């Protein structure tokens, strides 16, 4: 229990003490000596208490003060109360720091706390992982000595932190990080680094896409407007030129039409997130229709096209999307195989899965192109693809369709031997199987 210290009470006690000393001095005939002796005793007692206090403060591990009386008990009690208050505050502070650190650890971004000189005070786990910082080893080291990219250094030294900057990650050249400094408190800085690789790539893809579409549309338009400019004012061209001009203009217009149609198909497929495959797609009859179309395309080329189709093998899926995928692969084989070639189309069960394969004995595709074939507008031979009327979007469409059906396009190809484009639709999508195939299985 803490009793407030009373100054007058203490002074009264002191006065009573010295009065008693004086009375005693008068009794023995040495008042002065008696008072001096009394003062000496008080000094000794005070020093004793001072030593005890020193011992308690510096050497004892006990929180509670030694038992004492009088003025000293107030002093001990006061220090004890202050220590307890201080301890409680420290506990609260360390709890707050812990909560702040836990919060920063939970952030999806790398976070570094810096002092006004840019020296590291603290960093979260992600900062250690994505910026290569070590903590606590890097405590007190300046951030500009640890992240040395020139763009980052310029940004840091200019001290203009209104906008973030994008810089390659110090650990991985393929990653792009967005750095943002946030000044706070007493000239402290918070550095936030966020992985924006995907956004940068998407932005690049968007720019490429717009550039590619513009380029693809500009070429046929240039041809058409060229012929139109050639026409005299009365619109009458010599018969031979007129025939060629109309033929060329109509082929270029068709090319633009195909491109726009395929762009629409692609955007429809991309926008479609429907993965509910309740409808059974009759692939064998779909392949029959595509075979008729392929034969029409094949009139000039005279390829030998064979279809080996399991007549009962139907699947759950999205009919229009699958039609696009099957026809793109078959028509590509017809287009890109030099005449007279051999094309084999197979739609069969392999194990429990449905597998589609289109194999040709065309020129084949060099390995370096294979990983890029499904990119929009990627062509091995631009001129040839244009001649075939290709938009460069066919395989991109196939890729999206297959990803909707939890599958992916596989390409095996050898230059001067031929190519095989194939994919698997897993057993969960297989709807009906011919009894004959079941027996064989
Ligand atoms: P395109 O509309 O130009 O045909 P695709 O996306 O369908 O575009 O095909 C991309 C490229 O892949 C084609 O330009 C062609 O170079 C190559 N390719 C596709 N199928 C075959 C094949 N069967 N044989 C050889 N090359 C092919």
From TrEMBL:
InterPro entries for the chain: BphY/WalK/GraS-like, HATPase_C_sf, HATPase_dom, His_kinase_dom, HisK_dim/P_dom, HisK_dim/P_sf, PAS-like_dom_sf, PhoR_N
Localization per record: Cell membrane
Residue span, Histidine kinase domain: 212-429
Ranges that cross the membrane: 15-45
Keywords (A to Z) from UniProt: ATP-binding, Cell membrane, Kinase, Membrane, Nucleotide-binding, Phosphoprotein, Transferase, Transmembrane, Transmembrane helix, Transport, Two-component regulatory system
Cited Pfam families: HATPase_c (PF02518), HisKA (PF00512), PhoR (PF11808)
GO MF term list: protein histidine kinase activity
SUPFAM superfamilies the UniProt entry points to: ATPase domain of HSP90 chaperone/DNA topoisomerase II/histidine kinase, Homodimeric domain of signal transducing histidine kinase, PYP-like sensor domain (PAS domain)
EC number: 2.7.13.3
Reaction it catalyzes: ATP + protein L-histidine = ADP + protein N-phospho-L-histidine
NCBIfam families found in the cross-reference section: phoR_proteo, PRK11006.1
Protein name per UniProt: histidine kinase
Gene, per the UniProt record: phoR
């Amino acid at each position: 229990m803490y009793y407030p210290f009373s100054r007058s009470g203490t002074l009264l006690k002191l006065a009573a003490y010295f009065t008693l000393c004086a009375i005693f001095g008068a009794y023995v005939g040495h008042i002065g000596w008696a008072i001096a002796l009394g003062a000496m005793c008080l000094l000794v007692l005070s020093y004793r208490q001072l030593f005890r206090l020193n011992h308690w403060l510096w050497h004892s591990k006990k929180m509670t003060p030694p038992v004492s009386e009088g003025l000293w008990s107030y002093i001990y009690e006061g220090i004890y109360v202050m220590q307890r208050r201080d301890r409680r505050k420290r506990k609260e502070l360390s709890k707050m720091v812990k909560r702040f650190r836990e919060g920063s650890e939970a952030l999806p971004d790398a976070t570094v706390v810096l002092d006004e000189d840019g020296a590291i005070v603290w960093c979260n786990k992600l900062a250690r992982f994505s910026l290569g910082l070590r903590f606590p080893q890097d405590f007190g080291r300046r951030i500009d000595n640890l992240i040395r990219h020139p763009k980052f250094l310029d940004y840091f030294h200019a001290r203009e932190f209104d906008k973030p900057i994008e810089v390659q990650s110090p650990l991985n050249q393929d990653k792009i990080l967005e750095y943002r400094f946030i000044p706070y408190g007493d000239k402290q800085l918070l550095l936030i680094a966020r992985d924006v690789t995907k956004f940068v790539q998407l932005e690049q893809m968007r720019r490429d896409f717009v550039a590619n579409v513009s380029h693809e549309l500009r070429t046929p338009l240039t041809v058409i407007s060229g012929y139109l400019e050639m026409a005299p004012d009365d619109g009458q061209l010599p018969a031979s030129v007129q025939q060629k001009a109309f033929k060329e203009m109509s082929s270029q217009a068709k090319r633009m039409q195909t491109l726009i149609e395929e762009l629409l198909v692609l955007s429809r497929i991309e926008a479609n997130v429907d993965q509910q495959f309740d409808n059974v797609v009759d692939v064998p009859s779909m392949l029959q229709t595509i075979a008729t179309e392929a034969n029409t395309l094949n009139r000039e080329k005279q390829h030998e096209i064979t279809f080996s189709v399991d007549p009962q093998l139907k699947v759950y899926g999205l009919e229009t999307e699958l039609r696009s995928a099957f026809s793109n692969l078959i028509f590509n084989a017809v287009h890109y195989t030099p005449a007279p070639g051999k094309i084999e189309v197979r739609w069969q069960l392999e194990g429990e899965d449905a597998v589609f394969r289109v194999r040709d004995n065309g020129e084949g595709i060099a390995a370096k192109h294979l990983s890029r074939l499904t990119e929009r507008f990627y062509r091995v031979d631009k001129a040839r693809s244009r001649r075939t009327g290709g938009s460069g979007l066919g395989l991109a469409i196939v890729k999206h369709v297959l990803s909707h059906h939890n599958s992916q396009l596989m390409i095996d190809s050898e230059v001067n031997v031929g190519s095989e484009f194939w994919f698997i639709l897993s057993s969960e999508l297989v709807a009906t199987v011919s009894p004959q195939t079941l027996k064989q299985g």
